[in-house]
Amino acid sequence: MHPRELLQRELRGSFEFFRDFTNLETGSPGFGLSVDNSNEPEVASIASVGFALTAWVIAAARGYLSRAEAAAITRGTLETLLHRVSHHRGFFAHFVDMANGQRLGQCEYSTIDTALCLNGVITAAAFFQEAGIDVLARQLLDRVEWRFIVFEKADRTLFRMAYNPDRDGDYVTGDPGFIHQWDMAAEQKMMYLQAAAQIEPDVARKLYAGFARDTATFEGRPIIFNPGGNLFAYQFSEAWLDAERYLDPDGIDWFENTRLATLANRAYCIAQSGTFKTYRAESWGISCGDSPWGYDVSGAPPAHHDPRPNGTVSIYGALSSLPYAPQLVLEMADYLYTAHPQTWGRYGFFDAYNLDVTPPWYSQALYGIDKGCSMIMIENYLSRLIWETYTDSAPIQKALAVLGFARR
Predict the structure, then answer these.
(1) What is the number of other CB atoms lying within 10 angstroms of the CB of residue 38?
(2) pTM for this predicted structure
(3) Which CATH architecture has domain 3-407?
(4) Per-residue model confidence as pLDDT tens digits over 361-404
(5) Non-local CB neighbours of 16 within 8 Å, separated by 6+ positions
(6) Would you kindly state where each structural domain of the chain is located, as residue ranges?
């Protein structure tokens, strides 16, 4: 199959995943909510909703849905988010019931998952340019109390990572309340943009300056790395933000940073190919996602700790690298589709695979945040649609100006 046709099929399959695993039942209190993963159809992830909202934009642009139908789904989703979904000071519960939007168990109110959802809100409002959608989007964005999660630590201004009021709640290790902080370079850069459009400019700039820029080298070139060396943490903000067109206030080129991290991840997989059968020049990508042992958090150098490779290849992690290493990703997609047809299904590629267990393991799961990230990156590679729609939106343009990003 021609590589471009394969990308088109993967993109269409990604849309169909969100169509089939989103609550589109008219009148349902949970209308518009999307699954965390295909194995748990009753559990919605608030982050998945952000990717689903972006899927409706792609669907309208490509004719998978009529513009009117995509806009109607978007309006209904925003109504659900505004009036039905559990939140604390505008920060959504990480996991909610697909049927009614209510918080599941004692999960945390998550800052990053809220931000991923709001990225979809911003993208949808900018694309559809419809009064009803604009009003709902603005209400959702204005409701978030960013100052609630801002604090000072060792002369740095930081965001809290999450909040949980329950003593036995998820991630609570002592007294209930705030959980950890965003003090590292990771997937949270979108949070600084969203907050900068809402809070005092000097606080917004201190927040952006507050996270560590830990640096290592790959082939003599510097990489600002995330602690675990996870591919997704380089990709989630950049799925929406057009970092190719902007340098940050310190002149950091985040697009080039992600490109180098991608190449370093692949190089590490190749270096491990003598030990692990799954890894090779056409089979690489260590990130977080499905594995033979359930949800797995893995990474590659550079990282704070020595990685522990286990042979699992994150297919979506490699696909999400398409804008940064297009030829290498296309070669891998062709290899998987041809040599490992078990990696392909009704909705395109599954999440991961591993040849280093007995018998060889092929994921049968799809995660909303994973399928969503690769979907957006494929669309950006083909058309730049999401990059341009999101980055040129009014709130993001305001944020870039406040923070001091400069167009190249």
Answers:
(1) 20
(2) 0.98
(3) Alpha/alpha barrel (1.50)
(4) 999 999 999 999 999 999 999 999 999 999 999 999 999 999 99
(5) 346, 347
(6) 3-407
